Amino acid sequence: MSGRQLEVCAASFASALAAEAGGAHRIELCQNLAQGGITPSYGLIREVRRQLSIPVFVLIRPRPGHFVYSPAERAIMRADIEQCRALGCAGVVLGVLDAAGRVDVAACQELVAAAGPLPVTFHRAFDECPDQAAALEDVIGLGCQRVLTSGGQPTAPAGLPRLAALVRQAAGRVSVMPGAGISPATIRAVLEGSGAREFHSSARGPVVPAARGLFGVAEAETDAAVVAELVRRLAE
């Protein structure tokens, strides 16, 4: 069925290429997934933009950890957004909370303004909001195009009841995009149980032992075959 889309979270150049090769509709480009992802380097953004024909959304997150940002950190985020615009990226992915875990509307308005015409995805900072129904209205009021969420649970399959409620509440005003735990084995259940139309997955294959670095740590790359299987199951 048309209209369903797969966004792949790519944390390297190789993963970005694999996402496109597998048929992903869009990528979210980041680095350091082991700590939840941060803004990728200028060089990575530029080279991915040069090589890919599918839309590239860039994660705007200056550091790992919580989503309450200082004025200096927000200035860095604005500068990164401006850089993404200059490089011709298709959109940005961001989120700022206040100390109570609510959407920091004023801070997010600054960043959305910096994005200008670029579509904005509100990322999984949303899952730390204690009142997701109120948070969704804030995200809609900001003019975001979509919100990435696992329904407040560790994985989207575990958060299905909340995801379905959010999709109903959104009523087409924003796309509720399930993410976390989306695999070929789970994507149909999440699709059918949530009513969502867009889905987010890292689509990673196994870690290749030879790829381990100096400290014996390696992140699995996106696997084009896994991406293709996810796309196939979405189209069933």
From TrEMBL:
<dbReference type="InterPro" id="IPR036822">
    <property type="entry name" value="CutC-like_dom_sf"/>
</dbReference>
<comment type="similarity">
    <text>Belongs to the CutC family.</text>
</comment>
<dbReference type="GO" id="GO:0005507">
    <property type="term" value="F:copper ion binding"/>
</dbReference>
<protein>
    <recommendedName>
        <fullName>PF03932 family protein CutC</fullName>
    </recommendedName>
</protein>
<dbReference type="Pfam" id="PF03932">
    <property type="entry name" value="CutC"/>
</dbReference>
<keyword id="KW-0963">Cytoplasm</keyword>
<dbReference type="GO" id="GO:0005737">
    <property type="term" value="C:cytoplasm"/>
</dbReference>
<dbReference type="InterPro" id="IPR005627">
    <property type="entry name" value="CutC-like"/>
</dbReference>
